[in-house]
Amino acid sequence: MRKMLLALPALVVVVGLSAVTRGDDWPQFRGPNGSGTSAETGLPDTWDSEKNVAWKAKLPGYAWSSPIIWADKAFLTTAVTDKQAKPSGLGFDPSGFGNTKPPDAVYTFEVHCLDLATGKALWSRTAAERKPAIASWKNVYAAETPVTDGERVYAYFGMHGLFCYDLAGKPLWQKDLGSYEMAAGFGTGSSPVLADGRLFVQCDNEEKSFLAALDKRTGTELWRADREEKSTWSTPLVWKNAARTELVLGGGKKVRSYDPATGKVLWEMAGEGDRRPFSQSAGTAVADAERLYFGTSGGGPLVAVKAGAAGDVTLKRGETSSAAVAWSRPRAAPHTVSPLLYRGHVYVLDAYLDTLSSYDAATGEQAYRERLGGRGSTSSPWAYGGKVFCLDQAGTTCVVAAGAAFELLGKNKLGEVCWSSPAAGGGALVLRTADHVYCVKAKGGEK
């Protein structure tokens, strides 16, 4: 954020990268501030496999990492091997469940940069070429979304390394953070984030979980905090609120907030008096300047924690609020995907029941819960232009009017399997399916 904003805490935007983020960029997982929202005007609200498609590109291999956008470039990662099976994404296939043996095949872990206007490949780099260190059942080996500060792009491939390039593709540094087994062979998924000159990596696993802070310019490890957690897949959120800057992480046992400068725990919350833990976390929190909203296991609570919370803020059984907690809504947490905060409402997309729920952000009061009629989602919802977008696994996006009343405005169908969350910036929406990368622009919206 700009320095003058830092002097006005009440006006601080939820989260900021260390570099000044342009209004039309989407520099990380879930975009500016990790919010899943864009203030840009002229972004598309209707499309299909041909309508409003500015270009369509095919990348090698398969990946569920999201695209990111900076200025006139889009960045993506992928993992490639011979005789690679296309992931179906749809339904439950128990054939690989619990398989913790990695494949006996060499993969190339790749970073690609595309021209946002044309889809033309500007450069591609092989970050590593090796056999996978862990299994990745019903997943891929490029699930983590890269992040950029406008000077460098950081690509994290889970247990296979962290790699830094400048925007022209020049390798700057790389880091091996170790390799650890994940639960049931599910693979990894937590994406890195940036703040105040530091790059943060959450590595929760079955052996030795930790949170690491690295110097973004050199890759030097600045501090590491051990975590009493097992495998999780959520991405940290940098929360610049009315009181301070925090780094908030989901977890199977507790949701915790850390001081980004030191790794010290600022506050923590266990699930419902430690009787119902938060399960294996996959969703990422969202926030405004006053409250942080999270729910990290389906069937658990959706919670709003106030800025300035400290110590153990776990609610006692039967409590729905406290000095540190604005409200808690039972059995409202999302499965897998992250909640969305937009125009005074928190939206929760249920990945399995295919329902969209809306809650008043100030009070937690439920506005509605409606079925979308799709195939379930692993993509997190996003919003712009007064609309909320929900992409299902079959490539169909439901477009819903933002607000307290449910209004389905339309459905946009690509007809391809999709697990990735899109990127919205530069006048375009970039969607990644199992087969292609689509760039969608509204008519007359080209830049």
Helix and strand arrangement:
Elements: H1 3-6, E1 53-57, E2 68-70, E3 73-80, E4 107-115, E5 121-130, E6 147-148, E7 152-156, E8 162-166, E9 171-175, E10 193-195, E11 198-203, E12 210-215, E13 221-226, E14 237-240, E15 245-249, E16 254-258, E17 265-270, E18 286-287, E19 291-294, E20 302-306, E21 311-312, E22 325-329, E23 340-342, E24 345-349, E25 355-360, E26 366-371, E27 382-384, E28 387-391, E29 396-401, E30 408-413, E31 423-425, E32 428-432, E33 437-440
Parallel strand pairs: 17-21
Antiparallel strand pairs: 1-33, 2-3, 3-4, 4-5, 6-7, 7-8, 8-9, 10-11, 11-12, 12-13, 14-15, 15-16, 16-17, 18-19, 19-20, 20-22, 23-24, 24-25, 25-26, 27-28, 28-29, 29-30, 31-32, 32-33
Q: What this model shows, in words?
A:
With 447 residues, the chain is mainly β. Helix content is 1%, strand content 36%. It is built from 1 helix and 33 strands. The chain has one helix at residues 3-6; strands at 53-57, 68-70, 73-80, 107-115, 121-130, 147-148, 152-156, 162-166, 171-175, 193-195, 198-203, 210-215, 221-226, 237-240, 245-249, 254-258, 265-270, 286-287, 291-294, 302-306, 311-312, 325-329, 340-342, 345-349, 355-360, 366-371, 382-384, 387-391, 396-401, 408-413, 423-425, 428-432, 437-440. The longest helix has 4 residues, at 3-6.
- Tally of DSSP β-strands: 33
Residue runs with pLDDT of under 50 for 5 or more positions: 1-20, 273-278
**Could you describe the largest sheet, including whether it forms a barrel?**
5 strands, mixed
For the largest sheet, list the strands in their spatial order.
14-15-16-17-21
Name the beta content range.
35-45%
**Shape, please?**
globular
Rounded average pLDDT: 90
Output the structural class.
mainly beta
- How would you classify the quaternary structure? single chain
Alpha carbon gap, first and last residue: 25 Å
CA radius of gyration is 20 Å
Please give the count of helices.
1
- Helix fraction bin: under 10%
